[in-house]
Amino acid sequence: MASEHIIKAYDEDLKRLKTFISEMGGLVEAQLDQAVQAVVNRDVDVAQRCIATDARVDALEQDIENFVVRLLALRQPMAGDLRNIVAALKIASELERIGDYAANLAKRTIALKDLPQVQPASAIPRMARMVRANLKDVLDAYVDGDTAKAVSVWKRDEEVDEMYTSLFRELLTYMMEDPRNITASTHLLFMAKNIERMGDHATNIAETVHFQEVGTTIKGERPKGDTSAFTVVAPPRGESAEKR
Amino acid sequence: MASEHIIKAYDEDLKRLKTFISEMGGLVEAQLDQAVQAVVNRDVDVAQRCIATDARVDALEQDIENFVVRLLALRQPMAGDLRNIVAALKIASELERIGDYAANLAKRTIALKDLPQVQPASAIPRMARMVRANLKDVLDAYVDGDTAKAVSVWKRDEEVDEMYTSLFRELLTYMMEDPRNITASTHLLFMAKNIERMGDHATNIAETVHFQEVGTTIKGERPKGDTSAFTVVAPPRGESAEKR
């Protein structure tokens, strides 16, 4: 990895690229914080801010792409650096998607505002904070080239998936108990799915960091805890609908 | 765009890259066909084939990335070609996600197999065929450098979004009418969302093709018909639960 570059400006460019990614990562972290805050406090203003931030994240991704194209054209980097540059492009794309999901979380908070609160809602910020921690760690892993940290994020995604699958079941049960819970629970289901997908994208970044540093993929099958696509929940017999 | 390359091998490489994308596109189209077939016929074998194809799609994306890195290192392409090469990388990533969504559709077909059939299910293959047509057109637009076709795909995504939003409401109503519909309807909701996301990724490809050919983004705001994140559906008063 430690090839020395003769041209100082080139080194500066590579550093600049890393700073770009950190900046974008920081913005997406802020978006996720806003989304959590919006969920916890049912705060529409914060939700709107989170949605608004998305345009800046998108613009930053475009800036990074333009910067990469210029860097490739001007510096004609060799193999090792090329890997890093392509990695930055991929990470920017993953961050952009995480930002999208955060904005979608915020949008659904607005829909939930005037609906009856359903109890499993409290799991959403808990799950989001888990992914938030993973995102922070994977961005640190990228900046420090810390593969151990990347692997640890990669492993921890299983917890997020498991939490999602259990929340999926719980929300379906809630819907069955009282039809008045259905709209709110459906939004919560999609919010949970959004968070689970954010976790996947953090995991993708972990894989990219690992590949960039070590040149191999993370050993072993990717842990897969989200089995919700196969989940079937039966309504409780007889009494469910009368409860309301 | 039509800069002439002195080295014939370089031209061959650029052609090879385009063939790579077409190959990957064809595979993802096949996956989507399999997913539709699995939904229509409740066919678990076809669903399994669709899920299995995903590994080949992922491997192809990795091949394309490796090929691009080699191409950048060996040929040191200039600005116009660089744009095309970065575009290919982006399109491969969009196709990979479409493949993921197709596999998820197939997985949910397996969960639906033993559940009572709910009527809005018929909208799923209709919606999927719409996206399938958009995917075909945008791949053609890429191969032929046909910006008009790319713009037309971009515009048609609004129909997909609208269909999704209306299906979202319909499925929520179904859930409210009978709790026994809830699990099946939830899977259908996620299936509809998967298809809507596939449509978004086809739209992203359309934008990339347009940018690559013309050097500007598609004019005007991206049409946004998916308002489901803000949707609230109230349960029918009194009689809903007794229907079963």
Features of this protein?
244 residues, mainly alpha, 76% helix, 6 helices, disordered C terminus, homodimer, elongated, 0% strand
Description:
Two copies of one chain form a homodimer. By secondary structure, chain A is mostly helical. In chain A, 76% of the residues lie in helices and 0% in strands. The first copy, chain A, has six helices and no strands. Chain A has helices at 8-41, 44-75, 79-112, 123-144, 147-177, 182-214. The termini of chain A are far apart. The A-B interface holds A 65, 68-69, 72-73, 76-79, 82-83, 86, 89-90, 93, 104, 107-108, 110-111, 114-115, 172, 175-176, 179-180, 182-183, 186-187, 189-190, 193, 229-235, 240-242, 244 and B 65, 68-69, 72-73, 76-79, 82-83, 86, 89-90, 93, 104, 107-108, 110-111, 114-115, 172, 175-176, 179-180, 182-183, 186-187, 189-190, 193, 229-235, 240-242, 244.
**The biggest beta sheet of chain A, please?**
none
- Note poorly predicted spans of chain A: 238-244
SSE arrangement of chain A, N to C: HHHHHH
Number of strands of chain A: 0
> What structural class do you assign from the helix and strand content of chain A?
mainly alpha
Radius of gyration of chain A, CA atoms, in whole angstroms:
21 Å
Instruction: Describe the oligomeric state of these chains in a short phrase.
Output: homodimer
The most extensive contact between chains is: A-B, 45 and 45 residues
pLDDT average of chain A, as an integer? Answer: 89
Beta strand % of chain A? under 5%
Number of helices of chain A: 6
Helix fraction of chain A by DSSP (H/I, runs of at least 4):
over 70%
Write down the overall geometry of chain A. elongated
The span between the termini of chain A is 64 Å
